[in-house]
Specification:
alpha+beta; globular
């Protein structure tokens, strides 16, 4: 049974538009509103403005801080998240071996997992949204866009595909060889294009190479990249993607 939603005045003040508030309140329960209030009281955010991306597990809102800087607030749904699908990426990750087999706890772990994976990718020199803070089912991170407008996905853009392919190959290699991290859902749907440069997003499902399904997920990522870029005229296929990634190993690991 869903919680009754009585609306103290402080909740509405975090939304710049009544329509956006109503959209939010239909999707998320009182718990998420209270978490937003907690983050706002600590100065991390000032307003939740509007939806910029929707998904089965989460919605992403453009937000802003007290200085008017744009942020992205990713809010995972506790009620409707696909428990079984998410669980396969958490089970086997030693970082989260103590997570209870409970939907709410799994969603909280997933939020923490995305924050940590973004940190690892950033440490490897991969262009991802910079993580700022997380609490329970809410992740605050860098807003990827220009002049307040969210950047489009790779699938929706026309670009220098050969250049972007090479950047993605480098990013995969950096995550793999420097941080032992596999994205595990990489495709043209999870790459934004900002000023001609790819930005990898949606890395909550990312796993360490010690995960029992890491190889399977890595190979799936490689196939997705091969499929997309070969259709865009780049001379590549699955075997070449693997070969191109391996070429980066010596470059990244050799010491000065």
């Amino acid at each position: 049974m869903k919680e009754e939603f009585e609306e103290p005045d402080y909740r509405k003040k975090f939304f710049s538009d009544e329509k956006d508030y109503k959209t939010f309140s239909k999707i998320f329960n009182i718990h998420s509103i209270n978490v937003i209030h907690s983050l706002a009281s600590k100065g991390f955010i000032n307003q939740i403005e509007f939806v910029i991306s929707t998904g089965k597990e989460a919605h992403v809102f453009r937000a802003s801080d007290g200085s008017g800087n744009f942020l992205a607030a990713k809010i995972y749904k506790i009620e409707t998240s696909e428990f079984n699908k998410m669980n396969q990426y958490v089970q086997g990750d030693y970082r989260f071996k103590k997570v209870k087999k409970d939907k709410k706890e799994l969603v909280f772990a997933w939020t923490r997992k995305e924050f940590k994976n973004l940190e690892k990718a950033n440490n490897a020199g991969v262009r991802v949204p910079l993580p700022i803070v997380f609490k329970e089912n809410i992740l605050i991170m860098e807003f990827i866009g220009e002049n307040g407008i969210a950047s489009p996905k790779l699938k929706d853009t026309v670009c220098d595909y050969k250049y972007v392919y090479e950047k993605i190959i480098e990013s995969i290699a950096r995550m793999l060889y420097l941080e032992e991290l596999v994205h595990a859902d990489l495709s043209e749907y999870n790459i934004l294009m900002q000023k001609g440069e790819p930005v990898i997003i949606d890395i909550g499902q990312g796993v360490l190479t010690t995960h029992p399904k890491a190889k399977e997920f890595f190979e799936r990522d490689a196939q997705n990249i091969a499929n997309f870029f070969s259709k865009k005229g780049v001379n590549t296929d699955y075997e070449k993607v693997i070969e191109d990634i391996k070429k980066w190993k010596k470059k990244l690991l050799e010491k000065d």
